[in-house]
Amino acid sequence: MPPVAAGGPRVLLRRLREIMAEQTSAQTRLDKLVTVIASNMVAEVCSIYLRRAGKVLELFATEGLNPAAVHRTRMKEGEGLVGLVAETGEAVNLSDAPSDPHFSYRPETGEDPYHAFLGVPIVRGGQVFGVLTVQNRAARQYAEEEVEALQTVAMVLAEVVAQGGLFNIAELDEPELSPDRPRKFIGEGLSEGVAVGHLVLHEPRVKVERMIADNPQEELVRLEEAIGSLRDAVDHMLDSSELDLTGESREVIEAYRMFAHDQGWRQRMRDAVRTGLTAEASVERVQDEMRLRVSRFGDAILRERAHDLDDLARRLLRHLSGDGHDTVRDLPSDAILIARAMGPAELLDYGRDRLLAIVLEEGALTSHVAIVARAMGLPLVGSAEGITDASRAGDSIVVDGETGEVHLRPAGEIVAAFEAKRTLRAHRVAQFASIRDLPAVTKDGVHIRLLMNAGLLLDMPHLQESGADGIGLFRTELQFMIGETMPRLADQVAFYKEVLDAAGDKLVVFRTLDLGGDKVLPYARWEREENPALGWRAIRIALDRPALLRYQARALLTAAAGKVLRILLPMVSDVAEFNAARALIDREMERARTLARPQPRQVLVGAMLEVPALAFMLPQIMRSADFVSIGSNDLLSLAFAVDRTNPRVARRYDTLNPAALTLIRQIITSAAEGGGEVSLCGEMAGRPLDAMALIGLGLRTLSMSPGQIGPVKMMIRSLNYGEISVFVEKLCGRTDHSLRTRLAAFAAERGVVLR
Ligand code: PEP
Ligand code: MG
């Protein structure tokens, strides 16, 4: 039988509150805390370790261990049981600690006689900054309630430490050098546009003043009421949003609404209230636990959900404080919002009137907030790591949603440069618009077909705006990645139909699911792989799970009834693989015929050339495939053995390296011998200088992001094909790391416009 805690967690919490209110030194209060916790939990030892700079955990107070070890015993994160708790962010509960492989013996502490060990992390804002432990001589497992109670205490402790009640938090970390200095961040451009404005910190935490409940029953009622009013408010907000959300942005918002009504979330908060916390503290505790779990195990999709829940938790806290509507406070008229992460509904709340741009520490192209930002036409930069810590409300800031560049407190010249860039951009946009309906033809009469890449319905209006001749790459997997469940056949049909209708008589090339690698489905179980880029992805999945491809083909065939259907298979490594996939599509066509279903006028099936091995089989693949599209992102990353998602090496090769150009030239030449059509749809197609080289190599079709159509067309209309083809041919024989400078010099000499 475990000893019964003296007075239970609520009595303990009350005692803690009294101690914290005392006007004594921080050390004295910590010393008292450990004594009270030890006695309440009938533990012989209670210790508090707090994090110093460099992730070192230092013993700050102890009851039961040798007092001389205080401020002397230090563990690195991951070292010993205390380090393990800090590293994993989870409780460690052992009946015989010394026999555990993680146990690290520290003679100065005198902890030899203690067997039972319970350690819990001191967490705040999803970060661990200390560990609270209890130990007992007798070997025993601590009961579930004891673990809960210690976690609750740790949470209260975290709050007090962080609010400066015990220590100034700055004391625990290295002081930052001159916080006023200008800072530059290079993130990822997720929504285009340039903005110059003043910084607003998104939702600096809603401060939870009261942690310990006086009357738990009352807290439960408060929690329930707040959840109810939150749900109503969310429903109301989503229904009456001024933005006409359709397609993906609508789905994102619907998923968010579902979270607001989630019963599991509600139950976890109710449980936390029962341990003696106030409703507010319970919301925080559940949120902290969730954030920790996500940061440890989370893939991109889980993280996305976590942002939705963070958004909801902050809203719930506002409802608890009786202020359910106050997101848009006094925003300056040139507000640029900074946040670690943000939910889609929060962005909607701000509206687009006063907001100029958003910068996030997290966020990716397919993140919910990015989808909504693009729908709102707001520039957004993601992956700006460390920017929230460096930010202060009211600071000046400039943002480029295209290059991902962000300057905090920039010097006057930088602001001027960005102002100029913004004006220039507006000017360029006007210029591109003026050539939108002109053909992409070189000065000596060579026509180039410019297509755009897309993946969401949101992209479809760009087809008209950009003047693209069609969609050269429609990444169908995005639709599968943003939903909560696998789209049903009927949903897929409706979606593809909407895309085809929006495209009118312009062509659309649908790429079948390119899953795997970094693209995983939220609802599918996925085994982690050592080398996802070389792993189970794209066509490999399609062949192992033929139903997936057959359903998709069925949906595409139905949606394209009466039209030309173009299907593109990703990551084809050899001809047999392509033939096997094509046979699956043929079976679906056969099925449609047998059932007398309406069918496309013509079905063309192409192969993506992304695996270098296929480059050696062009004449053969050309006999099986109706067309080939070079996926230069993967092709070159595989050819140069560089992981395109690893920033350490991603920039190690240049797409304008002579080997890259020689490889592409060879592909074009052998495709032409086979009499086939080849195009290119990787990122390089949209960079005017790269596109110039590709045209010189003989490509006639390029597919790129819609924003690049204008700049590339402008380049083409100022280019002489005869000259560039001779020049590029010569360049292929060189040994430079990159031919960029030489190509740029060529362009400058011949007056080729590069913007
Ligand atoms: C490519 O690899 O070049 C490509 C267009 O496909 P994705 O970027 O979607 O992998
Ligand atoms: Mg690819």
Mind explaining what this structure looks like?
The chain is an alpha/beta fold. The protein has 3 domains: 8-168, Beta-Lactamase (2-Layer Sandwich); 183-413, Glucose Oxidase, domain 1, CATH 3.50.30.10; 436-750, Phosphoenolpyruvate-binding domains (TIM Barrel). 45% of the residues lie in helices and 16% in strands. It contains 28 helices and 22 strands. An 8-stranded mixed sheet has the order 7-14-13-9-10-11-12-8. Strands 21-20-19-18-17-16-15-22 form an 8-stranded parallel sheet. Strands 3-2-1-6-5-4 form a 6-stranded antiparallel sheet, sandwiched between helices. Strand 18 (564-569), helix 20 and strand 19 form a beta-alpha-beta unit. Helix 6 packs antiparallel against helix 7. The chain is elongated. The termini are far apart. The model is unreliable at 1-5 and 168-178 (pLDDT under 50). It binds phosphoenolpyruvate and magnesium ion (MG).
Give the tags.
755 residues; alpha/beta; Beta-Lactamase; Glucose Oxidase, domain 1; TIM Barrel; 3 domains; eight-stranded mixed beta sheet; eight-stranded parallel beta sheet; 28 helices; 22 strands; disordered N terminus; binds phosphoenolpyruvate; binds magnesium ion
Give a short overview.
The protein is elongated and about 90 Å long.
CATH topology-level fold name of the largest domain: TIM Barrel
CATH class of the largest domain: Alpha Beta
Question: What form results from the Cα inertia axes?
Answer: elongated
Task: Please report which band the strand proportion falls in: under 5%, 5-15%, 15-25%, 25-35%, 35-45% or over 45%.
Answer: 15-25%
CATH superfamily of the largest domain, please?
Answer: Phosphoenolpyruvate-binding domains
**Broad structural category:** alpha/beta
Report mean pLDDT, rounded to a whole number.
86
- Our count of helices gives 28
What is the strand arrangement across the widest sheet? 7-14-13-9-10-11-12-8
CATH architecture of the largest domain: Alpha-Beta Barrel
Instruction: List all distinct small molecules, including ions and cofactors, that are bound in this structure.
Output: phosphoenolpyruvate, magnesium ion
Proportion of residues in helical segments: 40-55%
